[in-house]
Design goal:
By secondary structure, this protein is of the alpha/beta class. It has one domain: Ribokinase (UDP-N-acetylmuramoyl-L-alanine:D-glutamate ligase, 3-Layer(aba) Sandwich), CATH 3.40.1190. About 35% of the residues lie in helices and about 20% in strands. It has 12 helices and 13 strands. It has a 9-stranded mixed sheet, with helices on both faces. A 4-stranded mixed sheet has the order 3-2-6-7. A hairpin with a 5-residue loop joins strand 11 and strand 12. Helix 1 packs across helix 10 and helix 10 runs antiparallel to helix 11. About 50% of the residues are buried. Bound molecules: alpha-D-ribofuranose (RIB) and sodium ion. The site of sodium ion (NA) has 8 residues, from loops.
Length: about 325
């Protein structure tokens, strides 16, 4: 079968200012401005498509310039766009990036908040035909839960990227995820929500592997947890779920060495590439998919922007070809 991925999620028009330092209350700064396509959903869909999977993107768009931009870009990347036409404006994000590459983001969900379970229910055919369904938490939980429910019924792998960190993922959604992919902050936020116990991100990253594995097992008892750790790579912990794995229950995969210029959307690059790799190479070990997604995400940070920074599969191979 063809490698197919369905991404359910947000599209935003990103407005990005690069500033020396993030603004403090009452402060007025000037910085270099650019705009471009973003939204975790669209970034991930673009990554999945450019990483070589036939990709459908289920989202909600407004009847405005942002919506037109999304349609044009999806078509240019061969993404099968399954948009719900909303009366709300297309989503927006205001992003400040400082000279250390740190960012602050404010989202105007707009149409993204209107993505409904009813619209997702109409996407039964692409979901059932996919190997992987991937979603984030910038869209209503009911919509994501509906997609994951359909995916599970059809034996399709579900990946939940629990971002942003302040979003709530109820237990009813959590149990439908085969894989969750938090960064360290998102891990701590979801861990507190699902177990009632608080861990600080600085403490989490100092845990040894056995202890991290134990924490992951409590966060998602049945499934696979991939904690993305930026330049430190990722930590993978497998449960009893149905994903193919080698003999190891947990391991680390190092990040690829690159010269980052803009890390906006790096997590999205990772998720889209992971989904595409799982869809394309069903027989490969999970560690190989994570290795590919790491390289893919690393290369995306060497380019400015979010969706527009996503590399093509052949570029990843060329960049990291060993001589
Ligand atoms: O993950 C990066 C994305 O988060 C940006 O493109 C912005 O739109 C927000 O959704
Ligand atoms: Na980038």
């Amino acid at each position: 079968a063809d490698a197919r991925v369905v991404v359910v999620g947000s599209f935003n028009v990103d407005h990005v200012w690069t500033v020396a330092a993030l603004p403090r209350p009452g402060e007025t700064l000037s910085g270099h401005y650019h705009t471009g396509p973003g939204g975790k959903g669209f970034n991930q869909a673009t990554a999945a498509a450019r990483a070589g999977a036939a990709t459908s993107f289920v989202c909600a768009l407004g009847d405005d310039l942002g919506g037109q931009l999304a349609r044009a870009l999806a078509s240019a990347d061969g993404i099968d766009l399954r948009d719900f036409a909303s009366e709300a404006p297309t989503g927006t994000a205001g992003i400040y990036v400082d000279h250390d590459g740190r960012n602050s983001i404010v989202i105007g969900p707009g149409a993204n908040a209107e993505l409904s379970a009813a619209h997702v229910r109409q996407q039964q055919a692409p979901i059932a035909a996919a190997q992987v369904v991937l979603a984030q938490l910038e869209s209503p939980v009911e919509a994501v839960e509906t997609a994951f429910g359909r995916a599970r019924d059809a034996g399709v792998i579900t990946i939940l990227n629990p971002a942003p960190a302040d979003a709530v993922a109820p237990a009813s959604l959590w149990v439908l995820a085969d894989v969750v992919t938090p960064n360290e902050t998102e891990f701590c936020a979801q861990f507190e929500r699902h177990t009632g116990e608080r861990i600080a991100a600085e403490v989490l990253v100092r845990q040894d592997d056995a202890r991290l594995h134990a924490l992951c097992r409590r966060l998602l008892p049945h499934g696979t947890v991939v904690i993305t750790l930026g330049a430190a790579g990722c930590f993978v912990s497998h449960g009893e779920g149905r994903l193919r794995q080698d003999a190891r229950t947990h391991y680390r995969i190092a990040a690829a060495a690159v010269q980052p210029v803009d890390t906006t959307g790096a997590g999205d690059a990772f998720n889209g590439a992971l989904a595409a790799s799982l869809a394309r190479h069903a027989d490969a070990a999970f560690a190989d998919h994570v290795h590919y997604a790491n390289r893919y995400a690393a290369l995306s940070t060497e380019r400015a922007g979010a969706a527009v920074a996503m590399p093509r599969d052949a570029e990843v191979e060329a960049r990291f070809r060993t001589v």
